[in-house]
Specification:
about 0% strand; single chain; 2 helices
Length: about 100
């Protein structure tokens, strides 16, 4: 009986380590997505500025690429947030 208690304790510790690692990865993913979103927002602003100053072809390319990249980053941040929600639910279910 002592060995099964020790085994369940080991599995609980392993589960906690896995949860911590998943949380760390989700936090890094969110931070990367946030930094990328800010970068691409600046690029979009640069493209809009180019459009205002009459550089239509260049401004269109820069603005559209910045907006498309921002959409991808927002989706990436949402995925990271969803992972955090799943981890929280799993931890609450285990407790």
């Amino acid at each position: 009986m002592n060995q099964s208690n020790s085994t369940s304790k080991t599995f609980a510790q392993l589960g906690m380590k896995i949860g911590q690692e998943r949380l760390r990865q989700a936090c890094y993913s969110f931070n990367i997505a946030l930094a990328s979103s800010v970068t691409f927002a600046v690029i979009s602003f640069l493209g809009a500025t180019m459009l205002l100053f009459g550089k239509v072809p260049e401004g269109t390319v820069v603005a559209s690429s910045g907006m498309l990249s921002s959409v991808g980053c927002i989706r990436f941040a949402k995925d990271a947030n969803d992972r955090l929600d799943r981890i929280m639910k799993e931890l609450l279910d285990e407790a």
